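Sequence only, no structure available. Ideas?
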Amino acid sequence: MNEQAVSFTVNGEAHRHFAEPRKTLADFLREDCALTGTHLGCEHGVCGACTVIVDGVAVRSCLMFAVQAEGTEITTVEGLATDGTLSPVQEAFREEHGLQCGFCTPGFVVSVHAFLEQNPSPTRQEIVEALSGNLCRCTGYQGIIRAVERAAKTMSSA
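Reply:
I predicted one. Tokens follow.
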């Protein structure tokens, strides 16, 4: 199959590569951009492990082709920390023990970051609903919910 040129910005850095039209954004980020924080779980858009932010919207990168991202701004979990300092969401996950094995964590962190950008003062019910698109097999979700609550407080007081 003929490869197509694709250009977009990932974590503030311009990327221009060639990709087969059927290559997913998740595979492109991992293989062509060497950003392996985006995890692949179900590859059907169900688990949320591959969540990235595209032009301000959280998307499942396993359901999007790289060529569809042409001209967009993408943020992966690697782009949330600044100069080695964890983002408020990442720090809250660490403080509240919102992870165990860590496989689902990048997708949760990116999803939560996008959610709090849209809803900086969520209720507990809104948090639960926002997290419903991400699956974790380890933590039981209570630490994750506490992490979102902590991150919301931290971000609103900054």
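The beta strands are 4-10, 13-19, 51-54, 57-60, 73-75.
Hope that gets you unstuck.
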